[in-house]
Amino acid sequence: MQDSPDTDTITSVSETQEISLPISISFPDEISSVWERVHLRKIGLFLASIFMFVLAIILMKDSARGISYLVQDFINVTNPVNCLGFGWLSAYLIMSGSPIAATALTFFDAGMVNKISAFTMITGSRLGASFIVLFIGFIYVIRGRDRAASLSMGLLSLTVTWSTYILGLLVGVNILRAGLLDWVQLHSGALLYKTTELMFDPILTVMNGLLPHWAIFLCGLLIIMLSFQLFDRCLPQMTIKESQVGQMSRLIYRRWVMFSLGALITMVSMSVSLSLSVLVPLSNRGFVRRENVIPYIMGANITTFIDTLFAAILINNSSAFTIVFVEMVSISLVSMIILATIYHHYERSMLDLVAWITTGNRNLAIFLLVVFVVPIFLMVT
Fold this sequence. Notes:
There is one protein chain. With 381 residues, the protein is mainly α. It has one domain (38-233, 240-380). The chain contains 17 helices and two strands. The protein has helices spanning 40-64, 68-75, 80-94, 98-109, 115-129, 131-142, 147-178, 189-210, 213-234, 242-249, 255-269, 272-277, 279-284, 294-303, 306-314, 318-357, 361-380; strands at 19-21, 238-240. Helix 6 (131-142) packs antiparallel against helix 7 (147-178). The longest helix is centred in the C-terminal third of the chain and has 40 residues, at 318-357. It is globular, with a radius of gyration of 21 Å. The two termini are 42 Å apart.
């Protein structure tokens, strides 16, 4: 990989052309006008999304124990392997990993799964969350865009996520079993939990009187999905012009810069689906090359746990917080070791795999078969 920008990496656009992106990218000369873009409607959406997120966690936590027989008898999530498959497949179905990760914490808090099973279920939710990027790529193909360019970002998101998370799974399970980070617990969540309990207890009382536990849990899952959609909509819209792309082009060739950028954007947006999905239009317009986004994906896959940490605080379970923290530590260790030691070999392997998948319909069909068969197999194991 070169250290200086290659002119082939940037598509020429006119001075007046603008490209809308669902993320906020600010530059020094724009800082003074940031507040001018803030609207009351977006503030309202932000407050509504936070309210719904907290309500959803309270509902799911309260009703989780009441549906334990359904989970153990019908869904069959009783060991680390099928919990991994369940989290993986569920993230596919709802096109998001965060609600499934929150579900894993409520299952753990209710005693339905143990610490290792909750860890693998959260890992599974992240393995399935990147599928949304591939799905967007397919939409671009249907709209007539080049298949290799459109699908490459989704395939990279999946392969990089899978390779780092599978290694992180091995590291994290051993850390949990050895109890190395059991001392990392957040006890100050009790005050927040009591406050939210007082605020939402009237709603919970009404719902308990009208609905069975499984229906309340389902309502909580639907509400948390809606809260993430509202949060995505409240993020400010920005544009990137040709002059701005010229400034960015000097940075996208530095792996640690891209790693930090992916972590930062995902931390702010609290959505790895959003921060990774933006790579598809950027790639199609020639602003980034595939090899430049691998560190970005790694960084995004670490800070995507910010909302799950918040959920752990809300359920007031110190061990749940430790589980999420171990997830972040294990993925960080794996990603940083790869970036610091074998990055060029790793990059070549990922790009070769993506190239093989996109060379023909048969290869793509084989990959898609693996994508769906593996989590189903794990779930029934």
